[in-house]
C-alpha cells in the first residue's frame, strides 16, 4: 500500500515522504480499515514537528481522523492508532471506538465531523453550558475547529461573533452563519466586539488560538462569562492573570477532548448521536474547502500548518464517495 512516513521531525512538506509499504497488522483490540478519506488537523502538523503531546515512534504515518471502511463494508469514523495514521491506504483503529459515519455526509465530510465537532460540542455544552440567546465569540471562525463551533453555536440558538484574519476568511465566516464578523487584520477586535454587544461582551469565548487571541478574550468576556481554551494554534501559550478572572468574575475552562475517550466514553457516543441528528437535519455540515488525492497530502498538511486554509482539507482516496 501507499503511506506517508515521517522519518524525522520538521515541517510537514520537508519530512513527509510517500512510501510503498506492507499494510499494518492489527494488534489486540484493533481493526484494519481501508481509508476512504482522511481529514487534516493542525495536530498532524504538530506531530510532524515533534511538538504534539503524543510522540509516536519514528517512522510514523500522520493522520488522526478518518472515514474508513471495515472488512464487512461498514462506513465508519475513527481516530487511527498511531504510528499507523490516516494518510495511507490502510490504517489501524481501536475496534471499540468506531463510530458509524452519518448517511447525510459524504466521506470527506464524515472524516471532518469527529474531532472538531466533538470538541465544539463538549466545549460549548459540557464545559461552558451555552444557552440559547447568549453571545458566543469564536476565534479563527473560518478554520476547521472554529467553523464547527460557529455551526454548533447557531444550532444552540446563540448569537455568534466570529473573529478571522483577512477578507477571504471573513466571507467564509459569514457563510458559516456568523451574525457578526470581525477581521482582526483591519479592525480593533476589542472595540468591534464591545460595540456589537452594547459594551457587555461575550458570554462564551471559544479559543483554539491562544496568544493575543486569549488576551483579547479576557478583555471581551462578559460578567459571569466563560472562556473555553481548546488549543494554541498561534504557538503562544498564554499565562492567565487569575486576579483578573477574580475581579471580573469569569471562568477559564480547559478542554482536552481526548480524555473523554478514556474517562467517559459513553458521553462521546451520546455526542456522536446528537451530531448525527444535527447533520441529518442540515443544522451542521463540515466545511470541506478542498479535497486532494493522497499524493498531495504533504503539501496540504503544510498549508494547514501555515494557517493558509479555511474549513477543512480532506485527503480523499480514489473511489471514495
Q: What layout of secondary structure does this protein have?
A:
Layout: E1 2-6, H1 12-15, E2 16-20, E3 30-39, H2 42-49, E4 66-69, E5 75-78, E6 90-94, E7 99-100, H3 107-111, H4 114-127, E8 135-139, H5 144-155, E9 159-164, H6 167-175, E10 180-183, H7 189-196, E11 202-207, H8 212-220, E12 221-229, H9 242-248, E13 251-254, H10 260-263, H11 265-280, E14 288-292, H12 297-305, E15 312-316
Parallel strand pairs: 8-9, 8-11, 9-10, 11-12, 12-13, 14-15
Antiparallel strand pairs: 1-2, 3-4, 3-6, 3-15, 4-5, 5-7
Helix pairs in contact: 2-12, 4-5, 4-11
Describe the structure.
With 321 residues, this protein is α/β, with parallel strands linked by helices. The chain contains twelve helices and 15 strands. Strand 8, helix 5 and strand 9 (159-164) form a beta-alpha-beta unit. It is globular, with a radius of gyration of 19 Å.
Low-confidence stretches: none
| Helix count from the secondary structure assignment | 12
Shape: globular
Major beta-sheet overview: 7 strands, mixed
Radius of gyration: 19 Å
Beta strand %: 15-25%
The ordered string of helix (H) and strand (E) elements is EHEEHEEEEHHEHEHEHEHEHEHHEHE
What is the average per-residue confidence, as pLDDT, rounded to a whole number? 96
Structural class: alpha/beta
* Percent range of helical residues: 25-40%
C-alpha termini separation: 20 Å
How many β-strand runs? 15
Brief characterization of the structure:
With 321 residues, the protein is an alpha/beta fold.
Q: Which labels suit this protein?
A:
single chain; seven-stranded mixed beta sheet; 321 residues; six-stranded parallel beta sheet; alpha/beta
Amino acid at each position: 500500500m501507499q503511506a506517508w512516513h515521517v522519518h524525522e521531525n520538521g515541517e510537514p512538506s520537508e519530512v513527509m515522504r510517500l512510501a510503498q509499504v506492507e499494510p499494518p497488522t492489527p494488534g489486540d483490540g484493533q481493526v484494519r480499515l481501508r481509508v476512504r478519506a482522511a481529514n487534516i488537523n493542525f495536530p498532524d502538523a504538530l506531530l510532524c514537528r515533534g511538538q504534539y503531546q503524543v510522540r509516536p515512534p519514528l517512522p510514523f504515518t500522520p493522520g488522526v481522523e478518518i472515514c474508513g471502511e471495515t472488512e464487512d463494508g461498514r462506513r465508519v469514523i475513527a481516530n487511527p492508532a498511531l504510528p499507523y495514521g490516516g494518510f495511507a491506504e490502510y490504517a489501524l483503529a481501536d475496534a471499540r471506538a468506531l463510530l458509524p459515519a452519518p448517511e447525510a455526509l459524504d466521506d470527506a465530510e464524515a472524516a471532518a465531523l469527529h474531532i472538531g465537532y466533538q470538541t465544539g460540542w463538549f466545549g460549548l455544552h459540557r464545559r461552558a453550558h451555552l444557552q440559547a440567546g447568549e453571545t458566543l465569540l469564536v476565534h479563527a471562525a473560518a478554520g476547521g475547529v472554529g467553523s464547527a463551533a460557529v455551526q454548533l453555536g447557531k444550532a444552540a440558538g446563540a448569537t455568534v461573533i466570529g473573529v478571522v484574519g483577512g477578507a477571504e476568511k471573513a466571507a467564509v465566516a459569514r457563510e458559516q452563519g456568523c451574525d457578526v464578523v470581525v477581521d482582526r487584520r483591519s479592525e480593533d477586535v476589542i472595540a468591534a466586539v464591545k460595540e456589537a454587544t452594547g459594551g457587555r461582551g461575550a458570554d462564551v469565548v471559544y479559543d483554539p488560538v491562544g496568544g493575543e487571541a486569549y488576551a483579547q478574550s479576557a478583555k471581551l468576556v462578559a460578567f459571569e462569562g466563560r472562556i473555553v481554551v481548546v488549543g494554541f494554534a498561534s504557538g503562544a501559550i498564554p499565562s492567565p492573570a487569575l486576579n483578573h478572572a477574580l475581579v471580573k468574575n469569569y471562568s477559564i475552562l480547559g478542554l482536552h477532548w481526548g480524555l473523554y475517550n478514556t474517562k467517559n466514553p459513553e458521553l462521546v457516543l451520546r455526542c456522536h448521536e446528537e451530531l448525527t441528528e444535527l447533520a441529518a437535519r442540515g443544522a451542521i455540515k463540515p466545511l470541506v474547502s478542498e479535497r486532494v488525492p493522497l499524493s498531495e497530502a504533504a503539501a496540504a498538511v503544510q498549508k494547514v500548518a501555515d494557517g493558509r486554509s479555511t474549513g477543512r482539507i480532506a485527503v480523499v482516496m480514489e473511489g471514495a464517495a
